[in-house]
Amino acid sequence: MGSKTQESIPSAYPRRQTHHGVVLKGFELLALAATFVAAIQSQVMSTTIGVARSDETPALRAVNAFYLSGLVFDLVSAFLAFLTARWLQRLTDEERAHLEVVFEQSHSRRFTRASADAEADVEHDPQPPAPPLPDKRPFVVRCIHAYFASSLFAPMTLLVFGVICMAVGFLIFAWAEQPLVVAIVLTAVCAGLVPFPVGVFLIGRNSATRRRVIDLLSRKQGDW
């Protein structure tokens, strides 16, 4: 009876997901998010794109330029996120194993550095992480490989640029084509909302910061 009861209790530490699965799921969600933003932006563009040339103002042309640029950023972001997810799906077993090893090594080095900073006042020094092996590839080859990796991980950056272009287009349209009160309210709303997505990016990889954030989230327990 005791063993059955013990087995029914869920572990506080669930089985860890693989690095490959986490990255793949992230890019799948990113492709969905970029597609959603692009759809919204295409709907917003209908308010300014259909204006006759004779009625266009310089401000309206600037709005259309930002809207179109943002739409291109969003579409390319969605397409690249899909390509990256598909690329990750097509990795062989050996390549996935290599991904797990190098990602885990990078994670271990960050964790060791964080532990060393947290225990700086302890008498014994922590074991330093093993330094990465020297890269003996030619410089041109390293640049090409860095370009490949940057292309795979570019979707999030492109999506941010797309959202920024859309927001700038909103503000120009409000100040140029709408009453003053509308422009002021929209600017205040945008300024008040910016800190929230910026805060998510600023959390970073610091383990101590993440633990403090998790402690604060635990008080909510999913009740927003």
From TrEMBL:
Annotated Pfam families: DUF6535
InterPro entries according to UniProt: DUF6535 (IPR045338)
Record bears the keyword Transmembrane helix: yes
Domain DUF6535: 42-103
Record has Transmembrane helix as a keyword: yes
Transmembrane segments: 21-45, 65-88, 146-174, 180-203
Annotated keywords: Membrane, Transmembrane, Transmembrane helix
Protein name: DUF6535 domain-containing protein
Organism of this sequence: Lyophyllum shimeji (Hon-shimeji)
